[in-house]
Design goal:
- The chain is α/β, with parallel strands linked by helices.
- Helix content is about 40%, strand content about 20%.
- The chain has an 8-stranded parallel beta sheet.
C-alpha cells in the first residue's frame, strides 16, 4: 500500500469528489492500512472478496458484475451496488432486499463504449430502465450512473465517452432531482479526465495499492 501516493491523490481530488479505494486482490491488512490513511469506502469486483475482507466499520461497494445467484450473499454487507446492468438482476436485488427489509443504493452501469467485454446498458436504454426500476422495485434506490472508461490510450475519446455519460446523468437528474446524486467514473489511469467531465465518485485501485497480482 502506497501511503504517499494515496495522500497525493487525496490532495488532488476536489472536495466534492468521493474516493472509492478498489481493494480487489489485496489483503485485509492492506485494506486496514488504507483505512488508517483516510479511506472509508472500499470497492470490490467479487462477492467472495467482500465476504473475506468484510469489516462493519468500513463502507463496501460492489463495483464488478454481480451474478444473480450471489445477490443474497452480498446484499447484507454492502452500502451500494454500482453495477446494476439488467432487469433480471434488478428483480433479484428487489426480491432479496425485500426479504431483509433493506433499501439498497444502486448505480446503473452504462456501457458507453459498447465494448463486448464490458457489462452495462447501452446509453439509449438507460433512462427507460431507470423509470422501470423506480416504478417496479421499491427496495432499489437508484442514485446515479457508473461507467468504465474505454480501453484505449486515446484521451480525446475517453473524454468524449465520459462526457456522454455526464450528459445522461444530467438528464436523469433533471427527471428525478436530487435522488440522482452520484456519477461514478474514472479509475487510476483516467480519473482526472473523468472529474473534468462531471464525475463525483472515482474508483482507484492500483494507484493506491500498487500493481495487482492476479495469481493470488
Amino acid at each position: 500500500m502506497n501511503v504517499e501516493r494515496l495522500k497525493q491523490i487525496q490532495s488532488e481530488l476536489p472536495a466534492d469528489v468521493t474516493l472509492v479505494a478498489v481493494s480487489k486482490t489485496r489483503t485485509k491488512e492492506e485494506v486496514d492500512e488504507a483505512y488508517q490513511a483516510g479511506c472509508t469506502i472500499f470497492g470490490e469486483n467479487k462477492v467472495q472478496e467482500i465476504i473475506a475482507k468484510y469489516d462493519k466499520n468500513y463502507h463496501w461497494h460492489m463495483i464488478g458484475h454481480l451474478q444473480r445467484n450471489k445477490v443474497k450473499q452480498v446484499l447484507p454487507l454492502v452500502d451500494m451496488i454500482q453495477s446494476l446492468d439488467s432487469l433480471s438482476l434488478a428483480k433479484e436485488i428487489e426480491k432479496q432486499a425485500a426479504k431483509i427489509e433493506k433499501n439498497i443504493a444502486v448505480l446503473v452501469e452504462v456501457n458507453i463504449s459498447q465494448e463486448e467485454n464490458k457489462t452495462g446498458l447501452p446509453k439509449e436504454d438507460v433512462l427507460d430502465f431507470i423509470a422501470q426500476c423506480k416504478e417496479s422495485f421499491p427496495h432499489i434506490d437508484i442514485q446515479g450512473l457508473m461507467c468504465v472508461g474505454p480501453n484505449t490510450s486515446d484521451t480525446v475519446y475517453i473524454a468524449e465517452c465520459f462526457e456522454q455519460v455526464h450528459q445522461l446523468f444530467l438528464e436523469a437528474k433533471k427527471q428525478y432531482g436530487d435522488s440522482i446524486r452520484w456519477l461514478s467514473m474514472g479509475m487510476s489511469a483516467d480519473w482526472k479526465i473523468a472529474v473534468k467531465h462531471g464525475s463525483n465518485m472515482v474508483r482507484i485501485g492500483s494507484d493506491i495499492f500498487g500493481p495487482r497480482n492476479y495469481q493470488i
